[in-house]
Amino acid sequence: MIHIPKSEYGRRRKALMAQMEPNSIAILPAAAVAIRNRDVEHVYRQDSDFQYLSGFPEPQAVIVLMPGREHGEYLLFCRERNAERELWDGLRAGQEGAIRDYGADDAFPITDIDDILPGLIEGRDRVYSAMGSNPEFDRHLMDWINVIRSKAHLGAQPPNEFVALDHLLHDMRLYKSAAEVKVMREAARISAQAHIRAMQASRAGLYEFSLEAELDYEFRKGGAKMPAYGSIVAAGRNSCILHYQQNDALLKDGDLVLIDAGCEIDCYASDITRTWPVNGKFSAEQKAIYELVLASQEAAFAEIAPNNHWNQAHEATVQVITAGLVQLGLLQGDVDELIASEAYKAFYMHRAGHWLGMDVHDVGEYKVGGEWRVLEVGMALTVEPGIYIAANNQTVAKKWRGIGVRIEDDVVVTKTGCEILTHGVPKTVAEIEALMAAARAQAA
Ligand code: GLY
Ligand code: MN
Ligand code: MN
């Protein structure tokens, strides 16, 4: 299995600690277990920041980073070994495992945190934490601070600054290392395989969930624990619902199906959208819209390179899509004016992409000092233009209604432009029709 090597977690902790102010402490909790219903839990997914700094996969754990501390800078609070609980729920690293396998300098039982952590915080000037994102943890933190305050008469010194960890950490996460790109390539490869399998299986008379099952099969077979987000399998008019998740409608002859799905490998997401005809053959109108979206995506790729700014790719898609909609008669008027008035948003209402990484909509600022961020080597993003003509849109000729097309790929900025991680899925009309025809011939 391709994964982030253990040594990388240590490098990340060091890099973060090097940026922290002197005499400070950073505290991060693991994700809580989420109850699905009564005794049933959701599949556990570690918090991305916690995972980024530790690779530690268990709940009920807290990372403490204390740059410059003589007796160890990286402390981990985690569950103790427990033969009975492990019999029911699976193995735990315990404190020994936290040190041996996860590089902690020292480890303590999570049940001792209230006794130990105030003493670690005391005397540090600044506390870095993800303030505001986890109210329960924020309350604990204040409790620990109050323990120190209550001992002020004994000379205890509470910290006097609380700093949001997000800025430092999320900026680090924005730049992907070689190891991260390798994992993202693997997630992209498996997801590409999943889209191909769904294309091959596509037939009128199946349901949207029939194709979702094909995706899930490839994800799990490839070693992914779960999709990176709820898969969107949207046929016919559902393709115009941007975050459609019902996935239970019939696939009909003559309709398109839009699939937006990607798996997660070692907590790194992939995010692919392809749109194809259920019956394997694009109609004239479907093809016209599809090729327009594809042309806009090609124009966006050309804008992704170091020193170009974040919004250039989006602007390129808007330009191509607006001009194309005018040519097809779906918009009337001057292209520049239609862009200025945002008339294109009736058909293309979302942005051309987002940062991609451990979170599918990954962390990192899009603007710096009020200006669009300039792209740099190692940044990963999606490129996902689309055109959606709602089934009830009375302003366009009937033949266009109910067509929704999005094409989405994942890229990493390189020295000379960008690497397309998700190149493995057919994309041109000819490629898609050929793949689907071959699958039908084989099945016949
Ligand atoms: N799958 C969510 C997105 O494309 O942003
Ligand atoms: Mn997507
Ligand atoms: Mn996306």
Automatic annotation (TrEMBL):
SMART domains: AMP_N. Keywords: Aminopeptidase, Hydrolase, Manganese, Metal-binding, Metalloprotease, Protease. One of its GO terms (cellular component) is cytosol. One of its GO terms (biological process) is proteolysis. Its EC number is 3.4.11.9. Its cofactor is Mn(2+). This is Xaa-Pro aminopeptidase. One of its GO terms (molecular function) is manganese ion binding. It catalyses: Release of any N-terminal amino acid, including proline, that is linked to proline, even from a dipeptide or tripeptide. SUPFAM superfamilies: Creatinase/aminopeptidase, Creatinase/prolidase N-terminal domain. It comes from Pseudomonas fluorescens. Belongs to the peptidase M24B family. Residues 4-138 form the Aminopeptidase P N-terminal domain.
